[in-house]
Amino acid sequence: MSVYPQLYEGKAKILYATDEPEVLLADFKDDATAFNAQKRGSITNKGKINCSISSQIFQQLEKKGIRTHYIDSPQPHQMRVKSVKIVPLEVVVRNIAAGSLCQQTGLPIGTVLKQPLVEFYYKNDGLGDPLLTRDRLLLLELATPEQVETIHNLALQVNEFLREFWQQCGITLVDFKLEFGLDSKQEILLADEISPDTCRLWNTGETDPNLRVMDKDRFRRDLGNVENAYQEVLQRVLKAVETNNLK
């Protein structure tokens, strides 16, 4: 429990104010939701696992010159972050066809895309987070044309890093969701989290379509062993980070 005033509670995190105006405390929850919160549950230790994974990946991204809102992690389930105004967009990057892309296009699941696909969704639960064309995005003034271009380019840079990083972990990055925010200087920072909640991850060495799943699809599709899968991802991340640091 934080001693600071609560500012916001979302599906996966609670944000608190701190003594520093431009610093917030994110408390990662064990709550799990799917299908726009129509399915709800809890995953044991999910908050600690996702916070740890996100912290490690954010630090690796910072080393690559990609600025994030991450400051540090004072507790296993907590992350201190720079205060940003979230751009109301969910940015999805796809490398392999799965999920809604297959449902909406008829592409067979597992189809490797010729190049990464970047999609923008309106971050609005009331509307069901709809997929936006770039013209609709600009019509709604969710971001400026320059911000959209910057976010698009950053998403591709993050994807390039993550594909290689997850490969080091023996994991195939199928697709993932990013969020971005504007700091006090109106500069764009990578925000939110990068974890099995926001990435679709397949165990590279596993061919069974159910056993290979190492992400929140295990919860969405009632595949079981959700905590074990998340924990396995964390262990592989820590090993990859340690290996990279020793190089």
From TrEMBL:
InterPro entries assigned? SAICAR_synt/ADE2_N, SAICAR_synt_PurC, SAICAR_synth, SAICAR_synthetase, SAICAR_synthetase_CS
Q: Which reaction does it catalyse?
A: 5-amino-1-(5-phospho-D-ribosyl)imidazole-4-carboxylate + L-aspartate + ATP = (2S)-2-[5-amino-1-(5-phospho-beta-D-ribosyl)imidazole-4-carboxamido]succinate + ADP + phosphate + 2 H(+)
Which Gene Ontology terms describe the biological processes this protein takes part in?
Answer: 'de novo' IMP biosynthetic process; cobalamin biosynthetic process
> Which PROSITE patterns does this one have?
SAICAR_SYNTHETASE_1, SAICAR_SYNTHETASE_2
Q: Which class of enzymes does this protein belong to?
A: ligase
Q: Show the Pfam families listed in the entry.
A: SAICAR_synt (PF01259)
Alphabetically list the UniProt keywords: ATP-binding, Ligase, Nucleotide-binding, Purine biosynthesis
What is the similarity comment for this entry? Answer: Belongs to the SAICAR synthetase family.
NCBIfam families annotated for this entry? purC (TIGR00081)
Protein name (record): Phosphoribosylaminoimidazole-succinocarboxamide synthase
Q: Which gene encodes it?
A: purC
